[in-house]
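This week, work through this protein record:
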Amino acid sequence: MTTSVSRNRDMELERIIQDTLTRFIQSHIPAADLSGMDDVFFSYITGVLEELGSPESSEETFDMDTFVEMMEAYIPGFAEIHSGDVCEMMFALSERLSEARNKEKLGQKTLESRSEAPSEDLTKGQEPGAGACNGKRLCALTDGAGAQEDADLKDGVELLLEMFPACTVSQAEKALAMALGNLEEAVQLIVEEKVEIGPGGASVKELSRPRRTPNHDELKQVILQKYMMVDSADDQKTHRPAPPKEAPKKLIRYIDNQVVSTKGERYKDIKKPESEEMKRTYISLKPARKYKFH
């Protein structure tokens, strides 16, 4: 019930935003393309309106340039509208949404006060001055409260299954148990995937039952008994990787696929072969003769 009310409220607020923006844009841009007004667009507008509705917000703190740039991306031609008209429209729309929320809160408070009135009458009837009730009446009240809780749980499960067809009955029951019967929190848990199916189809009572934290020593013994292959001597060893083997130095040197050295020299003087014509051009100079004078 609470979820449906919240959903209707969001739809009403979105309808107010859509109608106001549509009239404002069409009054300034008659041929405007409104096909870009999707869910992402309305979520952005709602966030901006919530900021404008805060007490700290004012016309000076409103970032008009960023807002107009974002609106221009969704609705071409929006930047041509005067910034003063845009600012006035946004603040008026924010006040209208605040009034709608306040009216809804007043209606909820009225319903809560009406629902609390019968409970107060029951409390007065159970006071010592009102007389003690007999055992049959007490049992009837207890049975009635239990039946009411079961009916509420069943209605909540049916509503969750209707909203989430892929959700199972056990998931819906567990979500309601974790949320303490609050449908909004249960929906949030299912959306955030925080609800998991219990092992072996466990019931909600078993899942909500507090479990004892296992002792560290007991847990260690259970693991040792289950796996039992623990080499304590291997834990005391220090494993060091073997040093890499160095490759032998290469002593043979090649040039043009020919061996030029077998001692590993990095440099080698190589005489290029000369042709016969080149050799003919060489002149052999002989040393002068030595003369002896008597």
Notes: Confidence is low (pLDDT under 50) at residues 125-142, 197-208. The first helix runs from residue 2 to 28. The first strand starts at residue 253 and ends at 255. DSSP finds eleven helices and two strands in the chain.
